[in-house]
Specification:
The protein is of the alpha/beta class. The protein has a single domain, classed as NAD(P)-binding Rossmann-like Domain (Rossmann fold), CATH 3.40.50. Helix content is 41%, strand content 16%. The protein has 10 helices and 12 strands. A 6-stranded parallel sheet has the order 2-1-3-4-5-10, with helices on both faces. Strands 6-9 form a two-stranded parallel sheet. Strand 4, helix 5 and strand 5 form a beta-alpha-beta unit. Helix 1 packs across helix 7, helix 2 packs parallel to helix 4 and helix 4 runs parallel beside helix 5. The protein is globular. The two termini are 31 Å apart. The mean pLDDT is 92.
């Protein structure tokens, strides 16, 4: 198959690019130097040149604070940019696989969110990503909107200064500092390589629609940090942040755990628990340290 991965130099995009190559597909990885998703002409030009059968979109403005400060930019990328891709895919007859977020939900449930649950985002980032989802559905029949959660991977996360949560925790522990982590937000940390493998499987399917795709189980960010240190046999000065300690930051859902119900109903859910995914990440990291 001919696969176009937009955002192929990002934390998730790198693993998606790698996963498709390993299956023998013809893959073109597009970065910001190749395409500007906010420009309809730029998007159409790229798709006409490469003529992909499947387009995987990982491009996004996903720094939550930046989105809140500049909502016009957030909507330009996360909504209108997605519309440009959907229109171009319709013209070319290509399938669009678009990566979305658990932040479309407001955290008002006490059990994992299903694909059928009503979104209620709390911030500009979540709202702009939801708008992108709606635009895809209004334009395309052949699409996958893939919501995921709390990603971490081996490639640098540019929106977070190059460090994902795991790497930040290990860095702070090495520096011997007190590490204060929120214990009031519950997520399903997801290794990008596991998500990439599922996206490859979706590209072979015609069961189009909305998909939740995260590791099984959930934890707080504090518990996630605890597990990182436990698996690495590190004694860290880890403390749970006090309620309201980080007040003033952008509102985030206190509970955004997703249920992979659509994958399960299709017999396609191969996600392991978040702790097992973390163990694989750390094992790979020990073989090829970040930055090598």
């Amino acid at each position: 198959m001919k696969i176009l991965v937009i955002g192929s130099n990002g934390q998730l995009g790198c693993d998606i690019h790698r996963a498709f190559i390993e299956t023998g597909d013809e893959v073109f990885g597009a970065t910001h130097s190749d395409v500007e998703v906010r420009s309809r002409d730029s998007v159409v030009k790229l798709l006409r040149e490469f003529t992909p059968e499947v387009v995987v979109n990982t491009s996004a403005m996903h720094n939550v604070e930046s989105c809140e400060r500049d909502p016009e930019a957030a909507f330009a990328v996360n909504a209108l940019g997605v519309r440009n891709l959907a229109l171009a895919c319709r013209e070319m007859g290509a399938v669009l696989i678009h990566v979305s977020t658990d932040y479309v939900f407001g955290g008002d449930k006490a059990s994992p969110y299903l694909e059928t649950d009503l979104p209620s985002p709390l911030n500009v980032y979540g709202t702009s990503k939801l708008a992108g989802e709606c635009l895809i559905r209004s334009i395309l029949d052949k699409y996958f909107v893939v919501r995921t959660s709390a990603l971490y991977g081996h490639s640098p996360c540019r929106a977070k200064g190059g460090l994902n949560f795991v790497e930040l925790m290990l860095k702070l522990a090495k520096e011997g500092k007190d590490i204060r982590v929120v214990d009031s937000e519950r997520v399903s940390p997801t290794f990008t390589l596991e998500l990439a493998r599922h996206i490859v499987c979706l590209s072979r399917s015609e069961s189009y629609g909305l998909i939740h795709a995260t590791s099984e189980g959930s934890c707080s960010w504090y518990q996630f940090a605890e597990e990182v240190f436990s698996l690495q046999n590190i004694r860290a000065r880890l403390l749970a942040a006090r309620p309201g300690e980080f007040a003033g930051t952008v509102r985030r859902p206190s509970y955004s755990v997703l249920d992979n119900s659509a994958l399960k109903s299709r017999g396609m859910n191969r996600f392991r628990t978040w702790a097992e995914g973390l163990r694989e990440y750390l094992n790979e990291r020990s073989l090829q340290p970040l930055g090598d």
